[in-house]
Design brief:
Chain B: Keywords: Membrane, Transmembrane, Transmembrane helix. The complex is a heterodimer. Chain A is α/β, with parallel strands linked by helices. Helices cover 47% and strands 20% of the residues of chain A. The longest helix of chain B is centred in the C-terminal third of the chain and has 26 residues. The chains are: A alpha/beta, B alpha+beta.
Chain lengths: 251, 353
């Protein structure tokens, strides 16, 4: 009896990826804003399905013309939860939202999806898709997103952030310490070598007659202001609960 | 009279200027003399010489053509470079001065007498060496410092009024967070400053023999100690006359003052996040120059087949020159520091886990 249960469990475990994949065959292109033609939708659907298989991430393409007053980030998050998206027990996945309400594109990342996409990678993907969106080529933008995301997941791998989200081995820690030690030792030697000779102490005040320096004319003329905006890097340090990230841009 | 040897009025022994006591003390009978007394002695000497005018002219012609001078003490020929103004007799080691090289256009206006004796200079050098962690341990022993030479180096001191302006661009950066966006506002300004200043006593050495970089590191000298020139200060030291006139060193002085003036003006551009100067213009007026002799201790040091040259400010004790580096000590320091840092980091890292 025990043996039979064991075999059933073993079979279940060995088939489990396929079972989850079976879940993944559900619709993953939610074209609520009707931006895609039927053939585009089918093409994207096929692409998404093959990508889910390759990357073991759940992937959804969502278009919306009414986001109920929510921000793109909140809308994507709620949509992801309401449709129980996510691959595996931790709901790994990506969601590509075209928000026509605010004319904004948003890439939502979850758990392992989050591990693959830090802000700079999301920015790079956004750089590529935004021109298509501005141009009205919505399907083309989604397709570009899928290809880019697949390339990043399969070739670039998980982001190794310096603040140690990924458990580095004790040896990498030691390698870092060794690096710091060598730099510190080198810096001390450089300071000593520079101190190994007499150095000039003459400065602009050495031969200046006391109080003789006078400014006779000053100009401080304002002419323009430039403004730059930068999204704040999220703290990637780990913790319990879902890991959620993302980034968006208007088009 | 080709050369001057200052002699003790009491015993006739040669007199040399003593840095410690700032007077002339006879090494033989320990009589002490002030500058006036020494000068009076020279005048008496001159009067006692009974040359006719004709003979003096002939004597002068002879001196102009000849490069050799005779020691008044032992009669041996004094062999010098043609820039040497004070030296020692090669044979009897009497301090000897060649006044013709300090006359007319070569007469210095001022002199800073030596403040540091040979012993004190050696002591300071050894103390300086002790503070250098990379120096080979055998370096800097007393016995090697015998060749310490006190030289009065010819310097041109420039006084001038300077006016100038700088122009450039500056920014004020303000950064704040709104939502999850950091907004950085940069305000751009055109900035400019015009000003004037007076620089005094900017030195430039007038001797080709002296390394300019080495001399620049000895600066500054304290001009409070400048005395009217008297040859008697040179007795017991070497002295050089200039072989680069003030026109030759002037470009180097203006270059220095140009950067100083630019720095002074740029420093008044305050309250900005960044300042970049794009144009500047500096002009010089009322340039005055005086010729002075300043005291320098020079020595060369043979170490492991390489010659190291050092110079010390004979007034303040400031040292110029590059010391040898012991590879073993450098490596030991490097290893020690690296190992220490590594140990602390590892201990800290393990503890935090």
């Amino acid at each position: 009896m025990v043996r039979q249960i064991f075999i059933i469990i073993a079979i279940f475990i060995s088939f489990s990826p396929y079972l989850i994949y079976a879940e993944g065959t559900e619709e993953r292109v939610f074209d609520q804003a009707a931006l895609f033609s039927q053939s585009e939708k089918e093409q994207l659907e096929n692409l998404v399905q093959s990508m889910i298989q390759h990357t073991e991430l759940d992937i959804a393409i969502v278009t919306a013309d009414d986001v109920q007053g929510k921000s793109s980030a909140d809308y994507a998050h709620d949509f992801y939860n309401e449709h129980s998206l996510g691959y595996g027990s931790t709901a790994d996945g990506l969601l590509y939202l075209i928000n026509m309400d605010d004319r904004e594109v948003y890439i939502y990342t979850r758990d392992r999806g989050y591990d693959y996409f830090d802000d700079s990678r999301i920015d790079k993907v956004l750089d590529q898709v935004v021109p298509y969106l501005s141009d009205g080529q919505y399907a083309k933008s989604a397709e570009t997103f899928l290809h880019e995301a697949e390339r990043i997941v399969l070739t670039e791998g998980i982001v190794t952030s310096p603040d140690g989200e990924e458990e580095g081995s004790i040896w990498t820690e030691f390698a870092i310490y060794l690096g710091i030690s060598v730099v510190a030792g080198g810096a001390v030697i450089v300071v000593m070598i520079l101190g190994n000779r007499g150095r000039s102490t003459v400065h602009e005040g050495t031969y200046l007659k006391d109080g003789s320096f006078q400014v006779t004319n000053r100009m401080d003329q304002y002419y323009t202001t430039t403004v730059t905006r930068q999204r704040i890097q999220r703290n990637r340090s780990g913790g319990s609960g879902p890991r959620i990230g993302g980034g968006g841009r208007s088009f | 009279m080709g050369v001057i040897v200052y002699k003790c009025i009491n015993c006739g022994g040669p007199l040399a200027f003593k840095a410690e006591t700032q007077d002339w003390t006879c090494d033989y009978c320990l009589s002490q003399f002030t500058e006036e007394e020494v000068q009076q002695f020279i005048k008496k000497e001159e009067q006692s010489q009974e040359f006719s005018a004709e003979e003096q002219v002939r004597e002068q012609e002879f001196q102009e053509k000849s490069v050799g001078y005779s020691c008044t003490s032992c009669g041996a020929e004094i062999v010098t470079d043609d820039t040497t103004a004070a030296t020692f007799c090669y044979y009897c080691h009497n301090p000897t001065i060649i006044p013709r090289r300090l006359e007319g256009e070569f007469r210095p206006e001022k002199v800073i007498p030596f403040k540091l004796s040979k012993e004190k200079a050696a002591e300071l050098f050894i103390a300086w060496c002790r503070k250098k962690p990379l120096l080979p341990r055998v370096f800097g022993s007393q016995s090697q410092l015998e060749k310490l030479t006190g030289i009065y180096v010819p310097f041109w001191l420039f006084d001038c009024d300077v006016s100038g302006n700088v122009q450039g661009k500056a920014t004020k950066v303000r950064s704040y967070v709104r939502g999850d966006t950091r907004i950085t506002e940069t305000r751009h300004y055109r900035v400019g400053r015009e000003g004037k200043a007076i620089f005094q006593g900017v030195p430039a050495d007038g001797s080709k023999k002296m390394d300019d970089d080495l001399m620049a590191i000895l600066e500054p000298f304290d001009y409070q100690d400048l005395e009217d020139f008297s040859m008697s200060y040179l007795s017991g030291y070497y002295a050089e006359k200039y072989d680069m006139d003030h026109n030759e060193v002037y470009p180097q002085v203006t270059q220095l003052l140009r950067t100083h003036m630019q720095t002074l003006l740029t420093n008044t551009i305050q309250g900005y996040s960044t300042v970049s100067i794009q144009h500047s213009n500096v002009k010089f007026h009322n340039v005055k120059v005086s010729y002075c002799l300043l005291p320098v201790w020079m020595f060369t040091y043979q170490f492991q087949g390489k010659t190291y040259v050092f110079a010390m400010n004979g007034q303040t004790g400031k040292i110029a020159g590059e010391l040898p580096i012991s590879k073993a000590r450098a490596f030991a320091w490097f290893g020690g520091v690296a190992a220490g840092v590594f140990a602390i980091l590892s201990a800290g890292g393990l503890f935090l886990w």
